[in-house]
Design brief:
Length: 108
């Protein structure tokens, strides 16, 4: 079933899309992109990256580093868990690099 709606003359300002912030994370490795996530808020972005590292850290990090990543996740310290994972990845297996987009690290 199709629905039709009468459209009247609108100005460009009235139909211009609303721009929302978009944050992205891409995990690169020597063999290509391993993971991507996009979100509207930094905490949503971090949650996506945490899900990725939670699934991989037991296989890619040394056991003591993997345990610490899990501890940080359980302590609700996602940014510390992400930092620890990416600072230690590559010591046991392949190097991965995290590329972030849309985030501002300068003064507010």
């Amino acid at each position: 079933m199709f629905y039709a709606r009468k459209v009247t003359s609108l100005s460009a300002r009235e139909i211009a899309p609303v721009r929302e912030s978009q944050y992205t994370a891409v995990v690169h490795a020597a063999d290509g992109v391993r993971f991507t996530v996009a979100a509207r808020r930094p905490d949503e972005l971090a949650a996506g990256v945490v899900n990725y590292i939670r699934e991989r850290c037991d296989d890619t990090l040394w056991p003591s580093d993997a345990r610490r990543v899990h501890e940080l996740i359980n302590e609700r310290s996602p940014y510390a868990a992400i930092a620890l994972y990416f600072s230690n990845i590559g010591e046991r297996w392949d190097v991965e690099q995290l590329e972030l987009g849309g985030l501002s690290f300068g003064p507010a």
